[in-house]
Design brief:
It is a single chain. With 268 residues, the protein is of the alpha+beta class. The protein has two domains: 1-43; 44-267, no CATH class. Helices cover 20% and strands 39% of the residues. It has two helices and 16 strands. The protein has helices spanning 2-43, 257-267; strands at residues 50-51, 63-70, 74-77, 82-97, 122-126, 128-133, 138-141, 148-157, 160-168, 177-178, 185-190, 195-199, 204-211, 217-224, 239-245, 250-253. The longest helix has 42 residues, at 2-43. The model is unreliable at 37-44 and 100-117 (pLDDT under 50).
């Protein structure tokens, strides 16, 4: 009888422990989903997207409907004390007149934090990147025209320093916003030469890239917008691989046409 009681006690304790573990797992998963939803909501707020055509801008009077926000400087190269600062935008509650030199009537400032990491890819919705050199205290923006930067990465190769960027300058889907739903191009900024290079193809949008180990090659994946709607659909449209050479800043198909042709005949 004592053995049966002891067995039942052990059985109840085991089921109780499993129930507690399951409840903790469910609560943890729910908390992760809630935090993810909150983060996605903050990143993708539609009113904070970069507007292509300002409806209040008459041409004679420059009206500011979006204000600038800056991240804290992030150190990307220690010897030269080179930092990068991301620039984003917010939708102003009240439009303001913009001065002759681009100064607003009311000063605006804000800050956001990003994870540190020398070669980490930083994702977001930025309208520019500012390079700051702590040795000579010089700073400059990388772009002089409107762009949506969806990601950037600091990268070193054989002592050369680069900023790798994914971004779109063209409102390809004609929704009057520049964001990552538009077809993107690949940009490389050479920090030592102070020069920007870009790789893009008509009716194609950058989907991602990968640096090849111990080489100056970067493989780029571009999605082909076959129906011409200004967006890429991964379910119905193909993609292509290109290889970008950092030494020459040129790109060419990664999979040669002869191999691609054989693959097409294989599946059709």
């Amino acid at each position: 009888m004592n053995k049966i009681v002891r067995y039942n006690q052990v059985l109840l304790a085991t089921f109780g422990t499993l129930a507690v573990i399951g409840l903790v797992a469910l609560l943890t998963a729910g908390l992760v989903d809630w935090i993810g939803d909150l983060t996605r909501e903050r990143v993708a707020r539609p009113e904070n997207q970069l507007v292509v055509e300002n409806p209040l801008d008459t041409g004679e009077v420059k009206v500011m409907t979006q204000g600038l926000t800056y991240s804290m400087p992030q150190l990307i190269d220690t010897p030269s004390l080179t930092h990068i600062i991301t620039v984003s935008q917010v939708e102003l509650k009240k439009p303001e007149l913009l001065g002759e030199y681009g100064e607003p009537n009311v000063p605006i400032s804000a800050g956001i934090r990003f994870n540190k990491g020398k070669y980490r890819i930083h994702n977001g919705h930025f309208n520019n990147l500012i390079i700051y050199n702590g040795l000579n205290q010089l700073q400059y923006p990388l772009f002089t025209e409107k762009i949506n930067v969806s990601s950037y990465q600091y990268y070193e190769m054989n002592g050369q320093r680069f900023i790798l960027i994914s971004g779109s300058k063209k409102d390809s889907n004609k929704d009057n916003f520049l964001n990552d739903s538009d077809l993107e191009s690949f940009y490389v900024f050479d920090l030592d030469k102070q020069k920007m290079y870009s790789t893009g193809y008509a009716n194609h949008g950058l989907l991602g890239y990968k640096t090849l180990y111990n080489t100056d090659e970067i493989v780029l994946k571009f999605g082909e917008d076959k129906d011409g709607n200004g967006e890429y659909d991964s379910w119905t449209e193909p993609n292509h691989l290109f290889v970008h050479q950092l030494n020459t800043q040129t790109a060419e198909p990664f999979v040669d046409e002869q191999t691609a042709q054989k693959l097409r005949f294989t599946i059709n």
